[in-house]
Amino acid sequence: MKNQLHLLGSRQGTYSWGEKSIMLINDKGRLALISVSGDPAAEIGQEEAGGQNVYVRQVGLALAKQGWRVDMFTRRIDPEQANIVQHAPNCRTIRLTAGPVQFINRDDAFGYLPEFVKQFQAFQKQEGYQYPLVHTNYWLSSWVGMELKKLQPLKQIHTYHSLGAVKYRSVSHLPAIASTRLAVEKACLETADRIVATSPQEEEHMRNLVSGKGMIEIVPCGTDIQRMGSIARQDARQQLGIPREAKVVLYVGRFDRRKGIETLVRAIAKSRWQGNADLRLMIAGGYRPGQSDGMECDRIKTIVQELGLNEIVTFPGRLTDAELPSYYAAANVCVVPSHYEPFGLVAIEAMACGTPVVASKVGGLQFTVVPEVTGLLVPPQDEAAFAEAIDRILSNPAWGEQLGEIGRQRVEIAMSWESVAYRLTSVYSKLLAQSAVQSVQKPQVAA
Ligand code: UDP
Fold first, then answer.
1. What is the ipTM of this complex?
2. Which of 61, 241, 290, 407 would bridge 351 by S-S if both were Cys, CB 3.0 to 4.6 A apart?
3. Considering the domain 233-414 in this protein, what is its CATH number?
4. How much is the pTM?
5. Pocket around ligand 1: residues whose beta carbon is below 6 Å from it?
6. How far is CA 162 from CA 137, 223, 387, in A?
7. Best residue among 159, 320, 324, 357 to mutate for probing ligand 1, ranked by most atoms within 8 Å of CB
8. Every domain range in the chain assigned CATH 3.40.50.2000
């Protein structure tokens, strides 16, 4: 496995020797982040590669900077992929082969998890150590964590990213895996050493819809506050060729019906700025022809055409990390029209760039967006309400700037990846201290 080492040339990957030695002095120990279905080294912004992948990678990098030796485990989906991707001196992605080496829908991956557990153990054996802490992400990985816990001493921390109990309320056909997922999510809540909820709304859902048992701590998601907010609005517009006076509305995210892009397009058709040459809607996100995201993108393009909005709507495709700050900064308003959103990284990224947010009043968006202070919240799927909220901000640019400034402050205070990593470190350290006490209290067996 060690033979295919691939170094990512990312900004985070370049550490000076000084920093490296500080990390060794400050060694906090080994930690495995498990994300079976969301590869932290993948390209973000298309099918099944969104917030979870970003979260695992950025949390991993930030924890490594704070002295943890972080290994992030995922399922290999392409024979061309490196087995190990080294992101920074103490942070790497390890791809385990479990099931076919190809993309499979998350709903079809459960059967390959026993093999994933086996491969994880084989990796530990080969490396000559066991991870005392395993932080699992999404329900598939929670099952892996619970199985590992039967096989070795470890503390399991879990982040759900999405709850079946909430998601299934808004779908007309339940997938075949639904009952298994619900049972695994309940077992995990009741047995994991700590559950990390990313917002008070998510904690409430867990308590009301999953189980009253289990230990939950709230640690929000984060964003890169150095990168996001690094460019001023007019500079960003110049870079993207957008006129100074344009009224720019932005969507960033995957093409998935749950994201509510249709609501946004229909709201734009209702906007009082519609028909004005200055109005623009940019719908950014990756898609692959023939895949489910490609089909959703085609559906949206058809609606745009039917509504006669071709002239004002653009589809710039998947945005890279380097491009995102300019798009957010160039916009007068960023819209997050999701039907359901466990957290919604896009909202805090826009806020970090000083852009106000109009979002659905659902899930974690109710925690990140403060209505009338950093943006506006409206009922999901209500295109008239979205149109009205967007118009209020577009019609009052000075107020829009003010909302954006306060949004930036809100993210700076509590939602940088550094602050998220500090809070997770405190959770991990408490659990490790418990393990130490438990091992001292264990009665010694006479030889
Ligand atoms: N994203 C990206 N490029 C794109 C579209 C999205 O990098 O073209 C990123 C976006 O910046 C955010 C993540 O994908 O960090 C989406 O996370 P979010 O929590 O908003 O939604 P999810 O995809 O998890 O449902």
1. 0.99
2. 407
3. 3.40.50.2000
4. 0.88
5. 44-45, 50-52, 54, 252-254, 284-286, 318-319, 324, 343-346, 349
6. 10, 19, 28
7. 324
8. 5-222+416-441, 233-414
